Amino acid sequence: MSDFSELQSGLSGSVIERGHAGFEDAVRGFNLYYSQSPDVVVTPATTADVVEAVRFAAAHALPVRVQATGHGAHHLITDGLLVDTRLLDEVSVDATAKTATFGAGARWASIVAAAASQDLAPITGSSANVGAVGYLLGGGLGPLVRSHGVSSDYVLSATLVTADGELVMASADSNPELFWALRGGKGGFGVVTEMTIRLVDIPSLYAGSLTFDGAHLETVLTAWAEYVLTAHDDVSTSVGIVHLPDVEQIPEHLRGKTMVSVRFAFPGSVEQGERLAAPLRAIAPVLIDALGPMPLGDVAAIHADPTDPSPAWGRAVMLKGPGQPDLDSAFVAALLEQVGVGVPSPIMVAELRHLGSAAIRDVAGGSAVGGRSSNFTLMLVGVPNPALFESALPAAADAVAAAIAPWVSPEITINFAGGAGAAVFESAWPAETFARLAAVRASVDPTGLFPYGPHDIAG
Fold it and tell me: Is the domain covering 206-426 a CATH 3.30.1340.30 domain?
């Protein structure tokens, strides 16, 4: 075992060994199912702390992993050094250059707020609570994905500490091969301490959600599947089937009910947004109409993702790759046989997101983002009962995938591939991209200081 007092003496942040006071709080992430147990957790207060931690780990042969918020945790960490980046959360906006620069621990909420104060917007993820750096390393399919594309396409530069303990800048002009990998390649390159992204002007945003009673589930899903066939290129929509469990945390009048939520985002005028959303409003009686003009700072309200930590289980696939059928009535029937009203299943949420349009187009010079050619994602979220995580939920997800097999794309995007095994991990990138990423990792981390694979997806 290493003498971690040596490391603490050189840091302004904290160093806590397993079993010592404060360890559990330092390693706890958003997904409470995983009680992480590395040999030591370092919470750096500065970039210099990260450099010292990596150098120490390299000298003592300790594998290094990174955690910002823990949303992406999909396995137990049982050894090595965990870098907890939560204190590296500075955010600055350059309104003239239309850029935002932020630390490794910054969450989307703070970046969105800082940009909105300058009437600008980042191309964010759906959750304001997720760490921006980890999300962007995997690409990112947010609520404006069709109008503005993949979130990592807006990354201008990244600063990281590599395995030799050096601070390196990667951009289109500096270390371009590493920069290519950092936009979509996810992990195994070093500890990213800072990113700069391009912000966009969105003078008006018409967005939000429409909630329908589960009695109209088939009607809503069928109509949405027809709507997306001719959807405006700048309209991003998704539909979520939500089976509310019969637990006391849910208001009594909603326990055990099924709801259907259609999310809508259009970066344009209120008048045009209302016209484009009108067919969705007309599908069935709307229980909750939360769709209208939206301030840029409220973008997280579109999906209203959970903000409180809890045990979490999820599985995703992508749908309709090249040559595959549209999401027609046969698809709707197949899906609802598995997750429809009254079907006994441990799956609590099934969410379909419409992609395509701007998401298909790669950036100049290319990026490592996978899954661009698929037109939809399907995310399955389990009832947050850990007793179901090992067998019941994987079996239910396998049954869904088998039922909709004709529509399932052979590819996935890495942010949705966690916890699903080596084959799914490799399918997150085309074969040539996967090989190129392996070559970049080997060049910047020849000793494998930063483990990365299907069981080492950072959060």
Answer: no
CATH of segment(s) 91-202: 3.30.465.10
Task: Please state at what angle helix 217-227 crosses helix 270-281, rounded to 10 degrees.
Answer: 130
Strand partners, 17: 40
pLDDT per residue, tens digit, the chain (459 aa), is 568 888 998 899 999 999 999 999 999 988 888 888 999 999 999 999 999 999 999 999 999 999 998 887 777 889 999 999 999 999 999 999 999 999 999 999 999 999 999 999 999 999 999 999 999 999 999 999 999 999 999 999 999 999 999 999 999 999 999 999 999 999 999 999 999 999 999 999 999 999 999 999 999 999 999 999 999 999 999 999 999 877 776 777 777 899 999 999 999 999 999 999 999 999 999 999 999 999 999 999 999 998 888 999 999 999 999 999 999 999 999 999 999 999 999 999 999 999 999 999 999 999 999 999 999 999 999 999 999 999 999 999 999 999 999 999 999 999 988 765 677 788 899 999 999 999 999 999 999 999 987 666 445
> Is this model's pTM higher than 0.85 or not?
yes
Start-end of CATH 3.40.462.20 domains in the chain: 206-426
Classify domain 4-84 at the CATH class level. Answer: alpha beta
Rounded Cα gap, residues 254 and 252, in angstroms: 5
Contacts of 251 (CB under 8 A, 6+ apart): none
